[in-house]
Design goal:
Chain B: InterPro entries: MCM_complex-bd. The complex is a heterodimer of chains A (838) and B (620). Chain A has 838 residues and is α/β, with parallel strands linked by helices. Chain A has 28 helices and 26 strands. Among the domains of chain A are: 134-238, 2-Layer Sandwich (mini-chromosome maintenance (MCM) complex, chain A, domain 1), CATH 3.30.1640.10; 256-398, Beta Barrel (OB fold (Dihydrolipoamide Acetyltransferase, E2P)); 765-837, Arc Repressor Mutant, subunit A (Orthogonal Bundle), CATH 1.10.10. Helix content of chain A is 35%, strand content 19%. In chain A, the strands form eight sheets. In chain A, strands 3-7-8-10-9 form a five-stranded mixed barrel. In chain A, strand 4 (271-281) and strand 5 form a beta hairpin. The N and C termini of chain A lie far apart (105 Å). In chain B, 37% of the residues lie in helices and 18% in strands. Chain B is built from 19 helices and 20 strands. In chain B, the strands form five sheets. In chain B, strands 1-6-7-9-8 form a five-stranded mixed barrel. A five-stranded parallel β-sheet of chain B has the order 13-16-19-12-20. In chain B, helix 11 crosses helix 18 (568-584). Chain B is elongated and about 95 Å long. Chain B starts with 8 loop residues before the first helix and ends with a helix. The chains are: A alpha/beta (838), B alpha/beta (620). Chains A and B meet through strand 3, strand 8, strand 9, strand 10 and helix 13 of A and strand 2, strand 4, strand 6, helix 6 and helix 7 of B. Strand 10 of chain A pairs antiparallel with strand 4 of chain B.
Amino acid sequence: LVAQDARSPPSQKRRTDDSTSTGDLQPMPTSPPADIQSPGAADALFSSPPQFRHSAIPLDFDISSPLTYGTPSSRVEGTPRSGVRGTPVRQRPDLGSVRKARQVDLHSDGPTEDVTTEQCLGQKLVIWGTDVNVASCKEKFQRFLQRFIDPIGKEDEDVGLNLNEPRYMQRLEEINIVGEPFLNVNCDHLRSFDENLYRQLICYPQEVIPTFDMAVNEIFFDRYPDSILEHQIQVRPYNALKTRNMRSLNPEDIDQLITISGMVIRTSQIIPEMQEAFFKCQVCSFTTRVEIDRGRITEPSVCKNCNTTHSMALIHNRSMFSDKQMIKLQESPEDMPAGQTPHTVALFAHNDLVDKVQPGDRVNVTGIYRAVPIRVNPRVSSVKSVYKTHIDVIHYRKTDSKRLYGVDEETEQKMFTEERVKMLRELSKKPDIYERLSSALAPSIYEHEDIKKGILLQLFGGSRKDFSHTGRGNFRAEINILLCGDPGTSKSQLLQYVYNLVPRGQYTSGRGSSAVGLTAYVMKDPETWQLVLQTGALVLSDNGICCIDEFDKMNESTRSVLHEVMEQQTLSIAKAGIICQLNARTSILAAANPIESQWNPKKTTIENIQLPHTLLSRFDLIFLMLDPRDEAYDRRLARHLVSLYYHSEEQMEEEFMDMAVLRDYLAYARGYIAPRLGEEASQALIEAYVDMRKIGSGRGMVSAYPRQLESLIRLAEAHAKVRFSEKVETVDVEEAKRLHREALKQSATDPRTGIVDISILTTGMSATARKRREELAQALRKLIQSKGKTPTLKYQQLFEDLRAQSDTAITKEMFEEALRALADDDFLTVTGKTVRLL
Amino acid sequence: LVAQNVPNSDWEKKVTEYFKEKLKENNATNWVPSLNDVPVHYLKPNSLVKFRCMVQDMFDPEFYMGVYETVDPNTNARVLHFGKYRDVAECGEILLNSSQTITSERQTFYCVPVPGESAWVKEISFVTELVLSYISASQARVSPSTSYTPSRHKRSYEEDEDMDLHPSKQKEQHMGSGSDIHGCVEPKRLETEASAGHHLTSPNCSPPLDLNFPLPGEKGPACLVKVYESWDSFKVNDVLEVYGILSVDPVLSIVNNDEREGSALDLMECMDTAEEQRVHSPPASLVPRIHVILAQKLQHINPLLPACLNEESKTFVSNFMSELSPVRAELLGFLTHALLGDGLAAEYLILHLISTVYARRDVLPLGKFTLNLSGCPRSSTFTEHIYRILQQLVPASHRLQMTIAFRSRLIPHKDYAANRLVSGVLQLASNTSLVIDETQLEQGQLDTTGVHNVTALGNLITWQKVDYDFSYHQMEFPCNINVLITSEGRSLLPSDCQVHLQPQLIPPNMEEYMNSLLTAVLPSVLNKFRIYLSLLKLLDYSISEEVTKAVEEDFVEMRKSDPESITADDLHRTLLVARFLSLSAGQTTLSRERWLRAKQLEALRKARLQQQKCVNGNEL
């Protein structure tokens, strides 16, 4: 009822001014229905609550208030009983740890209270300083719990929920079975159900959440009267739509329910926080309890029993403590504007939430934002005019841990505003979007259009397919690309660009990285002596792109770890007693220099880069970046470079799509678009594959492998994603084929014949070379056979004979290869310097 | 004056406006004492000061009481106060529950003096201020805005404190400085004492509080700068000049120690570690607070130049441009001597010194011109002397020995315990000259730190960015640093351009030679050099369509004749050389002649490298 100025003092905002209070607390017994039915139990609840010994602080206790709903009243009796009467309530320090609201006791037995008692009837009452009416609020929330059905329900926690039944009633059932007395409530659900209730929750969490607790417990114990829980159910709202990044927190958010995301950087030790002190009189052994009030315990100066002054002593082990932990949360790097350092905010976690997160975790935190003034000196009244702020945590949600269901990894989807989505959609309708995007990619790098297109498709990626039920596991959706070429053809620059563009990119250099640096390693934590798994670049770029420069400089053993990553998309670790498999669904963009540092056009790609072909075949596209040495090209290049040097910054911005748009476009496509193959497209793919096989089979060997077909599918899917299309069509297949061919044309052209030969990639040897080897072997066989029935031959002699006979030059290597081929055919064996026929 | 009693958002604007106007007046900025020159203990608390600094770290935003209400325990009278521009809320009992309280937000920056600032920058800016303030002392009454009015007696801290703690009535005159005390030393005294106290921060505070300067051995005050508006526009490593109210209330220092009383605050305090406390609320005597009224980013810190190039400074620029060529010739001669008579190297050194990153094309920084001066004599202290000469010319510089780079941590990293960014040598302001000395290098093994440092230096040179280490992730900070590498052979770091030094003379005593060189230059000439180098960095540049065509033709021709050795990189470099060559002559467009000259220079340089290769080849 009282319109609140949002900028009023944070801590005492609600209970402002005595004169203006129009409504007061609701006389609501803790658990009305149950109590009425069983007066004995009600007695247990009300028999010895410490609240009634409140002569020292008369105004501070009110069992009817939802705020003290969690006061440990019946815990003292402790006998486990079923139902709401027996289940102990537990304090919620997350809601009121720092101070206790000033409340008015509305019970008739409140001796000092005389204000507004007569107003307490009826439904118009609200909690002081808010517009929250406890009764109606509770009723509404109960209705929400009982009726809310979320038909879309796409949360990963929904496993096993019947989407057509009221969602939260199923949750309660779960609580009954599992016995974990917490109910997580998605604020978004609440908002779609009752906008006003949601608003109240956001604005007055401290008052509304206890009301929710009350409501939920009533329903729960009504349904499951025999259930035994550790303590009464506590409601934990999350996903408050006031989700903000840390930077946008401002004084208006104080005392409101907020959700922010960030990274945990430090956790404190557990701090035992006294909730209730136990005092004993040294003279007469009279005992009394004092509850914490605004962070302080008031020590009773006089014993009420024997009237001795200063005789009360604190008995530590009979006092009540609760766990508390301080956590520092830092802004996630993505949320940060460039050139600034990250902000941090302090969190306080209580009870069960203590030790739930570790430094390094990315979390979404829902909690109440608090601000407390700093007192310069407790004895002096002057106050440092600054507030300390922190968040009392109500709910954590880890964003990077493996959730129950690993499939939906895109939960961390970026939220897009509607206008943005509309803009992106519009953009996707443009006929030349593919060209547009590819030219927006690294505009400072000149030409290499196809390479940019390839990288663009890599950025989009294919659709993830799951064949685990048929035993093949996941199909890789990521596209791997290898760039190789002359030094100084801006390969590194492209890599840098990509690394800067994607949110989870990693950039390493082959020269500087070791196998463990790429994968993961086990380390002993110096403090705890625990074994800790430290992740390397490949794991860190899960769902991103790992850029590896100087791929050729990488040593053999390091490169070998890539085999598993590039096809299975996992990393297996068996080290120091830790055996595990980590996800590494990363695309690899590698750059390599030719082995002779300059590209030798007389050699094949394989010979030029000297990489094992097992690895090469895992790259979907291999591009050459060569210096074309062509006048027209030079001219355009010169123009491009000169323009770089005098265009002003603004002009450049206009010319190309800026990086932010591109980034959003990518994120949106990756998050929301998953194209499937259409009928026509499938047909086109089959044809393409058959064609590829045919080319090879014409010369008697297989030249295309299923891996190439998979590559084609991925590329086609990625191309469909560029158009935001849910269906892969023939055009996509055409483009995939074209790119694949373009890349191949460069990398798999047999320099001796000029024919594109895919077997170069798969066996590391061109078809002609193989054919030649075959011919030589046959010639050698004939030679040996012509020599008649000699069982052994001199190696050197044979070599010279063969050379004399052949009209082309035969090297020793070729000769040895031919020998080996014949040995494989069990025609002969070579022992030392003699050749023995079989 | 700005004195109002009712919360009114207008007054805040008026304050800024007012000071802006006042500071525009003739030399008004020079009356304001600068924290750079005057030791903190000579400045009056709560007076207007200025500070030229670099943002080293950004702390979390603070919520403070923008408006608060107090009550006098005796009379029960309620009074409203403003909390803006101050650290401590005073005056009696504060009503925390008052409905009138307004909570506002401000941002704290941790600022340090510009790292590597040359001595001459400090001296000149100090002297000009001194002179001007002396002149103005006689007419100081003109402006009531600046509380810097020299008065006869110097007050000690405590006295001022007492005065200020008096409940300043309802009328808060002029943000606390309205009280009529203007405790400041007279200029003459200031001169002597400041020059003495210049180098030591404050003698009585010896405990080693790490002030977190990027460069080792730096001196000067670090400052917590509290910004009230548009703090988003500032970035780490920005160079700022702030005008604001100095706050050195000793209460700030005891905040932490005295708090072990059982209070709610205790619970709050335990969340900050001791280190964090130390860093975020250091003693005010060591790290004073400045509450900013006006803050502006500086394009350069050269005191000989107008602060920004606008209409008013046009005459200055055109005057200087008219005498540009003799200055250039003199500078070339000077540097030729410094480089032992190598004219080509001197030419390239000038180009290097006026280079600056003027734009970034996606990841590619444009306008960087890292120079690798190879062939430096190893035995002598040649590099050191070159650096000393450069120090005389550029406003900020640092010399990094490669041997050190292998051992200590250069990259700034986040210390999570203290919650601050621990600075490193590579945290430098824009346009700082970094001289990397490779001549002292010995063979040996590199440890992890060394590898990281070399990678970081490589990134710095190639991409003009430094990845700061946040332990869980890295964050990229773009920078604009002129890197000059001196080495014997080719440097192990990448560079844009390598010039092999060919000394024409070897002086028997390097030290004597260099010293005599420096003393031979007149101060006025030296100042011209300084203006020359700083000014040319700020000029615009363009290439006409016509010349573009010519360049194109040229490139195609060159490729035709020698496709192996001419690459796109060469064109890049030649364009850069042409750009700086034109600028160094004061021309803002590329002419055909300059292009040819650039090509000629490049050819000379390459020939030298080729020659060098041959020599080495023969030796082997």
